[in-house]
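Interim report to the steering committee. The following record documents the input for Peptide ABC transporter permease (299 residues).
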Amino acid sequence: MTPHARAGILRRLWSLGTGRFGLIVVAVVVITAAVSLVWTPFPPLQTDIGAAWLPPSWPHLLGTDALGHDILSMIMAGARTTVIVAVGAGLIATVIGMALAVLGALTARWLRESVAVFVDILIAFPVLIIAMMIAAVWGGSLWVVVWAVGIGFGVSIARVARPELRRVLHADFVIAGRASGLTNAQNLRRHLMPNVLPVFIVQLSWGMAVAVLAEAGLSYLGLGAPVTQPSWGQLLQQLQQYLAVHPLSAVWPGLAIMFTVLGLNLLGDALREATDPTLSVRRRGSARRARTHQPEVVS
């Protein structure tokens, strides 16, 4: 993809309300995670019993918990865990999903059918159940979550991308490219992958959003990030037992999880529209017809 094409996609993405919202949310999370590497208002794991349950005020802008931990510092440090899980699971899902999709679409018939059956078997197991089973066997670990979610959503990506590849494979421009001497690898890079990209992006954004939810859920259950590594799910679990007494404290990690997942999902939808010109054309045509439509007068 040329720099001009990338710039065009970014302009279309920013012109969409969902795209702007998703970009802003994801940028805030990534910047917060980067800043927390070098600075947080207080050390995230520093306890101060004398400062327990302080309300939001200076210098504890979001208050403190039962051990005097600064909640804002914990959320900033937890953003690192969220970014690691989302990016790590996304990379693993990309490699596994596209490899299975290519094997299931562009190889010999016996291998295509074998891959399709294999994907259908794996898709029957929910991602969170797989993550819980692996975490129960190998112990709670952040990398267990990353690999479990990456493998689970890699299979989901393969199931969606494989029929798309098969559909595009029989398009006229692909047949013309093959007739002009393009190899399978060149056809895949020039014609097939760009046409599957919109569907792939949406699936990947959903996978990253579920990775964030899976990490939070497993950490909430004690099967995710270790206690020495701040996590939004872990913080939510620690605060929810005091919900009746200090309800505001549990709101902050819950909002962080909610906005991050919402931002990833909306960004994926906007990226699909920005990378698929036909969707933009259809929407502009529908809007133009709606503006110019004149209601009929019924006598």
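Confidence is low (pLDDT under 50) at residues 293-299. The committee is asked to note this result when reviewing the revised timeline.
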